[in-house]
Specification:
By secondary structure, the chain is α+β, with helices and mostly antiparallel strands. The protein is built from 8 helices and 11 strands. The strands form 2 sheets. Strands 1, 2, 3, 4, 5, 6 and 7 form a 7-stranded mixed sheet that branches. A 4-stranded antiparallel sheet has the order 9-10-8-11, covered by helices on one side. A hairpin with a 5-residue loop joins strand 2 and strand 3. The protein is globular.
Length: 298
């Protein structure tokens, strides 16, 4: 999360999306989740959230730019507030104004990023004194992707997502994110892979990379396991991948459980005359990898 402003008891944060440079889905765990092995990278596509304290307990969420996003108890922001209220005995509530720019249920972890920001905002506004590792540990109770957002923005993520090992990879490249006009259920995606408790695979190990060329070469050894099931069911995904390559992408693959596809470019891509730019039912974003601060200065 990135702090924009903090004045008059109002905290304004930018919450980034992430992409999976690679993603392996390993065996199913006894708790019902799956172990994963993935490289997460934060990117410069942000939701913007304003948090203000309320005198009475409860969370009031107003969403801008997305009329379909629920603001009830199932919203990850509400879940984060309610869990912290119970854990830390909060006497006050939280007003949240969310400018939703990251596509929903798109494999970019926008909801998880917003929930992580909520934990940080409550920690600041209610002066709980938690450090980033404490917030990361707490956040895993809400969702598997949340701990990553308390890292430096680049990490190898294992377990069900709670194990975050920060890494140093080249970040001087561009990405084009393409989100098509259909959702893909995360739960259905995992079920379609049919990984059980006995599934066995040697996890991929990403080599040390000093340059973008070395990173791209290392990524040749893996991909995104969800592509094997989604490309059979959603032909548009292969079309998007092919269009990214036509535009000059050096690598193209899916992020998370989809449906967002992304391409890696060595320089800022020019897409004006390409089909990607002219498809009104696809959301298109040109972004860069970013680093996240490990502490906040007020």
């Amino acid at each position: 999360m990135i702090l924009d402003t903090f004045d008059n008891h109002t905290l304004r944060l930018r919450t980034p999306a992430k992409v999976n440079l690679f993603l392996e889905v390993l065996e199913k765990r006894p708790d019902g989740f799956h172990n994963i092995n993935s490289a997460f990278q934060a990117v410069s596509l942000y939701d913007i959230i304003e948090f203000s304290p309320l005198d009475k307990p409860g969370v009031a969420i107003k969403v801008m730019n997305n009329n379909d996003l629920t603001t009830g108890e199932d919203n990850l922001i509400a879940r984060a507030y309610n869990l912290m209220k119970t854990r830390y005995g909060l006497s006050g509530g939280l007003s949240v104004v969310l400018e939703k720019n990251i596509p929903v249920a798109a494999g970019l972890a926008g909801g998880s990023s917003d929930a992580a920001a909520t934990i940080l905002a409550i920690n600041i506004l209610f002066e709980l004194g938690l450090d980033f590792p404490e917030m990361a540990t707490f956040s895993s109770e809400i969702g598997s992707d949340l701990p990553f957002f308390f890292s430096s923005g680049q990490a190898i993520v294992t377990g069900r997502g709670e194990n975050v090992e920060e890494t140093t990879l080249p970040a001087d490249y561009w990405l084009v994110l393409v989100t098509p006009d259909f959702p893909i259920s995360t739960a259905d995606s995992y079920a379609a892979l049919k990984r059980d408790l006995t599934y066995s695979k040697n996890p991929f190990s990403l080599a040390r990379c000093q340059t973008v060329d070395e990173l791209l070469h290392a990524l040749n050894g893996t991909g995104n396991d969800f592509e094997e099931v989604h490309f059979r069911s959603f032909s548009k995904l292969e079309r998007i991948r092919d269009e990214l390559f036509k535009c000059g992408a050096l690598r193209a693959r899916m992020s998370g459980s989809g449906p967002t596809m992304f391409g890696i470019f060595g320089a800022a891509p020019k897409l004006e005359q390409r089909d990607l730019q002219n498809r009104g039912d696809w959301q298109l974003y040109t972004v860069k990898p970013i680093a996240l601060p490990k502490q906040m200065q007020f």
